[in-house]
Automatic annotation (TrEMBL):
Domain Helix-turn-helix: 4-53
Coiled coil regions, renumbered to chain: none
Tree of life domain: Bacteria
GO molecular function, one term: DNA binding
Name this polypeptide is given: Helix-turn-helix domain protein
One Pfam family linked to the record: HTH_17
Length: 60
């Protein structure tokens, strides 16, 4: 099983505010599991989340 990330760890990796991660979690844009009152994020889901938001160079 993969090591799971906390929202704070995800925020640190993304270099965004913790509130931003919670917005993505609550909206369902960032897949995660809720364990009790705590969110946990698979690193592979975070990578997919980032890949979906990559901007392609359209000037080629």
């Amino acid at each position: 099983m993969q090591e799971l990330l906390t929202p704070q760890e995800a925020a640190n990796l993304l270099k965004v505010h913790l509130r931003t991660v919670y917005i993505y979690l609550r909206s369902g844009e960032l897949p995660a599991a809720k364990v009790g009152d705590n969110w946990r994020i698979r690193p592979s889901d975070l990578e997919k989340f980032i890949e979906k938001r990559m901007v392609k160079d359209t000037k080629k």
